[in-house]
């Protein structure tokens, strides 16, 4: 089978064998990538139309107990200027965002153990009370099922937790001993079982990653059926053990976005900040490859350069109407509309 036929098979059946995944990923050309992007865009248009959903990202704490080798805010990085936003500051970000047209707020932070379950419950409840037409997404890492249940009851709608890699030996080369792939997958399953819309995902070109690992990730994602998938290129950070490792491939990231769209037609798929960071216009090309979400930053200007997961992270922010207008304009130019909407996953109609 040639690559075009493999892509057609994925489009038609929504899955591939491990052998075909590896063959496709190891031998794709620009022609294959462009072909997949065209099909993927058509699939996304059929499900979500010409809409691009925006999520307001609020990076509320850069304290983290973990020491992931790739991440700029790892516990052992002593160069980080650490901060925590107060509840009032978080609500102020939402207030700003709401006026700009955001209807989803993503609370993202390091695994900061000083926050109790109750702290999160109070924040979630106050956002949902004030902005009842908005969705709240949490991106705060591994916790107990009980905590996840409490936050869901408090009103949280979605949860992002990239699995990073489903291959255990690869997981071990990215994380210190105390972090376990099993627990991460347990978290993802609990979250789904509780009723969250759940996102998993990987970094493209993370150190030691090979095409077999990515094939395993695609097969895992097909089986897990996430509602969202976060996929962006790995970008080295100067104060981490991976500082000298090469960044992930821009083209492979775009190709994977297309393949994920073909495999999971209804998935909510962001063109990530990391993609826009390694290439000017990356987010637009991400949308044209099958993505349908962008996640502008709503964090206060003063802390924004402190949440550095990787170097040169795009830092434009969207605190002003002007910035969002610019994004709207960029999307318009490629034929897409930034919409004022929660942008939920389209579950099966009963
Ligand atoms: N490059 C790209 N992405 C990164 N992340 C963490 N560090 C980096 C990096 N150096 C991603 C991880 C994490 C998400 C919040 O950010 O995949 O799950």
**What gyration radius follows from the Cα positions, in whole Å?**
19 Å
Distance between the termini: 38 Å
> Which percent range describes the beta-strand content?
5-15%
Overall geometry comes to globular
Strand order of the largest sheet: 2-3-4-5-6-7
Order of helices and strands: HHHEEHEHEHEHHEHEHHHEHHE
Please give the largest β-sheet: 6 strands, parallel
Low-confidence stretches: none
* H/I helix tally: 14
Helix content: 40-55%
Number of strands: 9
Structural class: alpha/beta
Mean pLDDT: 96
Ligand names: 5'-deoxyadenosine
Overview of this protein structure:
It is built from 14 helices and nine strands. It is an alpha/beta fold and 350 residues long. The strands form two sheets. Strands 2-3-4-5-6-7 form a six-stranded parallel beta sheet. A three-stranded parallel beta sheet has the order 8-1-9. Strand 4, helix 6 and strand 5 form a beta-alpha-beta unit. Helix 3 (30-48) packs across helix 10, helix 5 packs parallel to helix 6 and helix 6 runs parallel beside helix 8. The radius of gyration is 19 Å and the shape is globular. The site of 5'-deoxyadenosine (5AD) has 12 residues, from loops.
């Amino acid at each position: 089978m040639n690559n075009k036929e493999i892509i057609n098979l994925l489009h038609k059946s929504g899955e591939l064998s491990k052998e075909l995944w590896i063959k496709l990923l190891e031998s794709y050309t620009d022609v294959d990538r462009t072909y997949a992007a065209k099909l993927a865009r058509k699939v996304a248009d059929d499900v979500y139309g010409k809409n691009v959903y925006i999520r307001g990202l609020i990076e509320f704490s850069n304290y983290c107990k973990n020491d992931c080798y790739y991440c700029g805010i790892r516990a052992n990085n002593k160069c980080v200027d650490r901060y925590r936003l107060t509840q009032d500051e978080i609500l102020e970000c939402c207030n700003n965002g709401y006026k700009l047209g955001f209807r989803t707020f993503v609370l993202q932070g390091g695994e900061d153990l000083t926050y109790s379950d109750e702290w999160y419950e109070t924040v979630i409840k106050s956002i949902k009370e004030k902005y009842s037409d908005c969705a709240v997404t949490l991106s705060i890492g591994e916790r107990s099922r009980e905590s996840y249940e409490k936050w869901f009851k408090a009103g949280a709608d979605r949860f992002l937790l990239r699995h990073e890699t489903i291959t255990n030996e690869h997981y071990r080369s990215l994380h210190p001993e105390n972090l376990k792939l099993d627990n991460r997958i347990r978290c993802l399953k609990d979250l789904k079982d509780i009723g969250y819309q759940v996102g998993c995902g990987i970094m493209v070109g993370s150190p030691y990653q090979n095409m077999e690992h990515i094939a395993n990730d695609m097969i895992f994602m097909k089986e897990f059926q996430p509602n969202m998938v976060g996929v962006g290129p790995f970008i080295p950070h100067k104060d981490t053990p991976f500082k000298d490792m090469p960044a992930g491939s821009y083209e492979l990231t775009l190709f994977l976005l297309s393949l994920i769209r073909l495999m999971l037609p209804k998935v909510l798929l962001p063109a990530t900040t990391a993609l826009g960071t390694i290439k000017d216009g990356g987010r637009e090309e991400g949308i044209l490859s099958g993505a349908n979400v962008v996640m502008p930053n709503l964090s206060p200007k003063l802390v924004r350069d402190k949440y550095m997961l990787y170097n040169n992270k795009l830092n434009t922010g969207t605190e002003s109407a002007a910035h969002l207008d610019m994004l709207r304009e960029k999307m318009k130019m490629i034929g897409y509309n930034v919409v004022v909407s929660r942008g939920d996953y389209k579950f099966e109609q009963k």
